[in-house]
Specification:
The chain is mostly helical. The protein contains 7 helices and no strands.
Amino acid sequence: MSGITSGALARLAFWAKGMVSINDARMEWPGFSYSEPEWTRMRALSAPIGAGTYQLFTVVNAAIFIAIAALGIFGVFLPLATLLFPVPAETSALKFSLLLAACAFLIIGLGLPISMRFSAMLVGGKAMREALVPAAGDEVLASKVSWQINRIMLIMCGLLVPGILLFIAYDIEAGPIITALKWLAIALMAVSTLTGIARQRKS
């Protein structure tokens, strides 16, 4: 018997619904891989969630997260930036980037779980929760998903925000390491896109 709570199981089910949809489209989300038994369990968890319910969940989740992000920007990032960098013209690009990355990780790392928690609570009705029967391994799967989310957020904020994306967008030359990372990111995005297209054509 799993020790997972009904709320955590509902959040896992909504997450599973999204991942199953991606998998059914013959696409992959880098950083989120699962074993065959885990895919089987996620399909079972996602079964009680209809398309309309999931769409409502994504809308509610997005709205709550945007509100949290706005609160983080105006309540954390801007006050800290004003305090630490009173003279914008004299602000170090590195220090500003580090503050931006740290605040982004804080906002996303805390905001996304909170928005998912409230969204699942608001959208996941009694009938859906009753249809979700916990099973052995659910708690482990939920922990794995949480770790995957935190890991990808750390990578995105540490490398992509504001690093690689800024270097790609503005084509900034910053030495061989950054240049290598820039082209590696471009190559990975290209490979991921081409792989998805190829799999869609085969299906």
